[in-house]
Amino acid sequence: MKLIKLAILSFIFLFLIVLGISLFIPSHIRISRAVNIKSPVDSLMNQINDMNKWKEWYPGFDTMRIEPLALKDGRVVSAQLSSTRISITDSKPGEVKAEFKSDDKNPVISGWEAKSYNSSDSLTLQWYLDFKLKWYPWEKFFSLAYDKMYGTPMEGGLQNLKKNVEQ
Predict the structure, then answer these.
(1) How far is CA 74 from CA 57, 91, 96, 112, in A?
(2) Concatenated DSSP letters of 121-152
(3) What's residue 161's pLDDT?
(4) Which of 16, 47, 65, 84 has the smallest CB count inside 10 Å?
(5) CATH architecture label of 26-166
(6) d(C-alpha 54, C-alpha 134), whole Å
(7) Are the beta carbons of 57 and 44 closer than 8 angstroms?
(8) Nearest to 100 by CA among 58, 147, 37
(9) What DSSP element (H or E) covers 116?
């Protein structure tokens, strides 16, 4: 009986320690990558504003089956990708935001911002992913690997986009 009581108390104590440490990990994570592109902002944002064109540059979209759900001015602005619904939620000159929503998970916001500077002949395109995490310790500890998981494919996607737009 003492051994069982010790095991239960040890488990509770260990869980509280892990929970306490996880409270120091932020609930909002942003992963961001940027690239300089020699292109007019309109032709760059046309590649991002239409999900049909994502197959040409977005990592993994060339092999996935996307079901368009909504069109706007001939562009696909909402689509279903297996269990994930993707919607372009905001589109302004030089800025696009998309929401990736899967089941009962918090949505992931993907955003692209193109900035030009007077002293430069190119645009700086920043691509970011915003994650809002729940309080669960395993979710917060797992988020420490997000930069490695998403950063490298984002860099590849930006290089593909740069190659497509600069041609």
Answers:
(1) 19, 15, 17, 21
(2) SSEEEEEEEEEE--S-HHHHHHGGGHHHHHHH
(3) 93
(4) 65
(5) 2-Layer Sandwich (3.30)
(6) 29
(7) no
(8) 58
(9) strand 108-116
The pLDDT assigned to 97 comes to 95
Q: What whole-number distance in Å separates Cα of residue 11 and Cα of residue 95?
A: 48
Q: Which tokens go with 119?
A: 């002293």
Q: Are 126 and 34 in contact (CB under 8 A)?
A: yes
CB 61: neighbour CB atoms within 10 A?
Answer: 18
Which are the contacts of 118, defined by CB distance < 8 A and separation ≥ 6?
none
pLDDT, tens only, 46-75? 889 988 889 889 998 888 877 888 888 878
What would the two tokens of residue 63 be? 């092999």
What are the structure tokens assigned to 89, written together? Answer: 């939620």
What is the Cα–Cα distance from 129 to 33, expressed in whole angstroms? 9
For 12-44, the DSSP string reads HHHHHHHHHHHTTS-SEEEEEEEEEE-S-HHHH
pLDDT by residue (tens digit) across 84-134? Answer: 899 999 988 889 999 999 988 889 999 999 998 877 788 899 999 999 999
